[in-house]
Every structure is written in C-alpha cells, then in structure tokens.
Design brief:
Elements (H helix, E strand, L loop, with lengths): L2 H12 L4 E3 L6 E8 L3 H4 L1 H7 L5 E4 L7 E2 L2 E2 L3 H9 L3 E4 L12 H15 L9 E3 L7 H10 L2 E3 L9 E3 L6 E2 L7 H13 L3 E6 L13 H13 L3 E2 L2 H10 L3
Parallel strand pairs: 2-3, 2-11, 2-12, 3-6, 7-8, 10-11
Antiparallel strand pairs: 1-9, 4-5
Helix pairs in contact: 7-8
The structure holds zinc ion (ZN).
C-alpha cells in the first residue's frame, strides 16, 4: 500500500464528516446486497422472507438488465418486486467507478444519472448509498454524506457509540473469506452494545462469486441474528432508529 493511499485511508478514517450518537436501546441489523446480481433477489429473497427479514439492495444503474463476468444482474421487474415486498432499493452509483477517482462534478453527475435512471422504477427516492468497491476519500465522504442520509463503506465492525453516517461500517458475508466465528462475534457485539450491524454481500448461489455467498451462509447469518433477538430491517429504517431512537 503506497504512502498516499495510507495517508488517504488515515484521513478518511479520522475525519468526522457526519457523526451521530447511537440512540438504540435494542440492537438492529441490516442485510445488504451490492450492485446487485439477480440471485440476491431470486435466491436471497425467499431466504429473507423465511426469516421475516427485509434487506437493502444497492443498485448501480449500469447493471440494470445486463449479464457481465458470468453474473446476471437485476432488472426493472426485480426492483419493483422487491420494493413491493418491503425491501429497500439503495444507490450504488451509475457507472460503478471508485468514488475517489472521480472529480466532484463527475461524482455528482453520476449519482444524479443513477437517480434518474432508477426513479421510474421506484415509488420513493433512494436515500441510502453504498460506495462502489467500498472506496472512499474525504471528498467523496463529504459529498455523498451530504447527498444521502447514509453512505455505507466496507470497513468491518458494528455501528455503535458515535456512528459515522457518511461511512457506515459493514461486515463482509463473502464466500472467499467465510468465517462463521466472525459473524457470531459481530452479532454478539451488536446485541451487547446495543448497536447496528450491517452485513454486505453480492450474489447468492450454490456456487457464488468470491464476493457473494451461498444460501446456507445467508441462512446462517439471519438465523444467528434471529436467535440473538436482533431484527433485520432495511438501512433506511435502521438509520432512523439509530439516529432518532424509538425502538
Ligand atoms: Zn459494487
């Protein structure tokens, strides 16, 4: 890792862009899917339903209706169906480029393009955002933190105490580094704080991409949350509870 990259990571970690004191009196969880491959809905949806869990699907407009690198991505009908089932559609940029590589104008234009592309398919605007590849910079945090209610990164950990709404922490649920003990630890930590634990993954398949998970992994995580008494709700609703209280 180069010096500039390390310096940028340090500044991003320590810059308080949008901090809120966690008001939770009971723990809460969010399950999130990035990009997102169709299987996150077609395979993941029934598993979520079985656990009475509602998720956030972060959609990048460029992926709508396409297949790429062996993955089928969501289509317009999927967005409508999952919204109707009570899940949230979040924003994930349109072009799916790393936010720090774009200038301010390009970053704003890309977010706007995504909003315009998906608006006809949604009942409400997208207020939750996830950084493509989890890549952030102080400037991207300031910009996306101002535009969206929340922006989710990929720094692992539970959101508790002072929550950074411009870079929410999230725990990976990835086939390439599946570690049930880490899932268990995150659930225990969220229950104890009490805090808000967010998981992130991509496709859900018996033979997932390295960044996706199997149905069993998703089922395991949701079961751990249920048995710890942690409700799984979309990011938008969890944010409201964490920031404004009320459950
Ligand atoms: Zn992505």
């Amino acid at each position: 890792m180069g010096l500039m990259h390390r310096a940028n990571s340090f500044i991003t970690r320590h810059l308080p862009v949008k901090l809120a004191r966690c008001q939770l009196t009971r723990p809460v969880a969010s399950m999130t899917f990035d990009d997102f491959p169709r299987s996150a809905w077609t395979v993941g949806g029934p598993i979520l339903a079985r656990h009475r869990a509602r998720a956030t699907y972060y959609a990048a407009g460029r992926f709508c209706g396409i297949a790429e690198d062996g993955l089928d991505y969501y289509n317009a009908a999927d967005l409508r169906a999952l919204s109707a089932a009570g899940h949230e559609v979040g924003a994930h940029s349109h072009a799916h480029q790393m936010a720090p590589t774009l200038g301010s104008k390009a970053l704003a234009a890309d977010a706007e393009r995504n909003a315009e592309a998906l608006a006809p398919l949604l009942d409400r605007g997208m207020s939750s955002y996830a950084y493509p590849y989890g890549e952030v910079s102080p400037r991207a945090k300031a910009q996306m933190g101002a535009r969206f209610a929340t922006a989710r990164g990929i720094r692992s950990g539970v959101n508790a105490g002072l929550i950074d709404l411009a870079q929410l922490r999230a725990v990976p649920l990835e086939h390439r580094r599946w570690a049930p003990a880490e899932i268990d630890a995150a659930v225990v930590q969220a229950a104890a704080a009490p805090g808000w634990v967010i998981f992130f993954t991509h496709d859900v398949s018996e033979s997932p991409s390295p960044f996706g998970c199997t149905p069993a992994m998703l089922d395991y995580t949701l079961a751990r949350l249920s048995s710890a008494g942690v409700q799984t709700i979309p990011v938008r609703q969890a944010m409201a509870r964490a920031v404004f209280g009320g459950g």
